[in-house]
Amino acid sequence: MCGITGxxxxxxxxxxxxxxxxxxxxxxxxxxGIALLNQNGxxxxxxxGKLDVLEAHIQGNMPQGSVGIGHTRWATHGExxxxxxxxxxxMKGEIAVVHNGIIENYLKLKxxxxxxxCEFVTETDTEVAxxxxxxxxxxxxxxxxxxxxxxLQGSFALGIxxxxxxxxxxxxxxxxxxxxxxxxxxxxxxSDISALLEHSxxxxxxxxxxxxxxxxxxxxxxxxxxKVVRREAMRVDWSLEAAEKGGFEHFMLKEIHExxxxxxxxxxxxxSQDGAAISQDEMPVGAEEARRLQKITILACGTACYAxxxxxxxxxxxxxxxxxxDIASEFRYRDPIVSPGDLFIIxxxxxxxxxxxxxxxxxxxxxxxxxAITNVVGSSIAREADAVLYTWAGPEIAVASTKAYISxxxxxxxxxLDLAQKRALITEEEAGEALEELKRIPQQIQSVLDQxxxxxxxxxxxxxxxxxxxxxxxxxxxxxxxxxxxxxxxSYIHSExxxxxxxxxxxxxxxxxGTQVVMMATQDALxxxxxxxxxEVKVRGAQVLAVVGEGVGGVAEEVEEVWYIPRTNPLFxxxxxxxxMQLYAYYVALEKGCDIDQPRNLAKSVTVE
Length: 609
Description:
Strand 19, helix 12 (about 380-385) and strand 20 form a beta-alpha-beta unit. By secondary structure, the protein is α/β, with parallel strands linked by helices. Helix content is about 35%, strand content about 25%. It folds into 3 domains: about 5-235, 4-Layer Sandwich (Glutamine Phosphoribosylpyrophosphate, subunit 1, domain 1); about 250-445, 3-Layer(aba) Sandwich (Rossmann fold), CATH 3.40.50; about 455-590, Glucose-6-phosphate isomerase like protein, domain 1 (Rossmann fold), CATH 3.40.50.10490.
């Protein structure tokens, strides 16, 4: 969601803040602002729109100062506007605050503060924090911050500057990520590692309820009780170049082309040194636990949830363990039944998805055991889970997930194979054959990428549709849901995914002459039934695009367009079958002139409920 950053040092802060905000543009935002502390007090510049608007606003009028905070806002309370943009101040203009998260009890606090004489100028929840800091300030900013934290409810990462404390910069974390870095003459904080990499590869991850005081020469971190604590530095292995476009027009297209490497890296990281078997050092479920497993519950949101749906089918087909997928944002609210030792798998690209964190904590509170699948080392989910399996997809900048999604499927596949072997359902030889098949998938994906012009031409012909339906059976249904999500996320075309067998139960009423239908048909065992579904929509005037395995006959004659993908084990086909759909979504959005990497109203890391 929002991006926040701050710095204190010997150099002018404004250019540093602007570069940091640029690095976090991919998170999604609708306004931006910076606040600088200097001899005149606090100077603020902010504007609705992209950072280019803010840059134009401060061109020739750059605020001075070596202490500052910056923000990119994703609106929750109050419409996007210059006034509602962060930073926000108290009435005296002596304290400025930037905030990522949601203050759930802001309205109650706002009414109370108004009764105490405070005047509000924005519709945001964040302004409450600025007024509270002023209200409670007794001369010791740290004590003041702890008082404010004690009355705030919700999730928040706060960056704070005060003209009363000109040599310090403060930040606070509760349920929203916050990362620190320092050099010999400066200290920095940000909600995203990418904003700090130009300064240092050694970063410090704040824990919940931590309060940090940053000065030019040092960073002091205190826990929720005010005790000074030491947080171990984490070294970031990837470079800023990995978060650049590398000659591609958009990050999304670059990341689609990085999928073969992402899969190889993820697969190899979980194999033995010779690559012949799954590394038991990596797998979090032992042989005894595997044999007594009664159920697996996968918790996730959005794209990760659709990866989880594929994982569910793999666990049932390969390991014969009952599995279900629960939307993380709904899990807590239905009073779930959890038995001690029940196995949960949390899937989250960022490891900071607040709904998934909350679901994980509820599962643990009820006695469940939690395994995390995430792409971010040291993320909240990675730290709090009982065990973690990493997807080594590298930084993913585009809001619409591509390489992280297929890497999640790869890890779920390896877990299913490992459980199947430990439950004596497949032999060591059969597991080895499956791994060899998985090793071929990156090259199969590359062969699809090499034919992307075919997909681009079709997108040119169909980009102006108002609605597109995706259908499939079994694994293809899960695949259709992710394909539909990709299209709607970045092209804003209304699209829905349906289980093809449900056509006759109501969906077919939506089919009329000219309706575009995309039929995923990678599962050979279900092909005959899928062909019947194609005929059902065709006879009612639908235009059909089918995605099938190479060498499959009888499909091209029934549809207007067919895309062939390399044949693989049907259980692994979703990792290949999603590639043409990702490319299709990209090229449709390109034809429509959409903001592909930063689609409207969306954020990369959803850190609010």
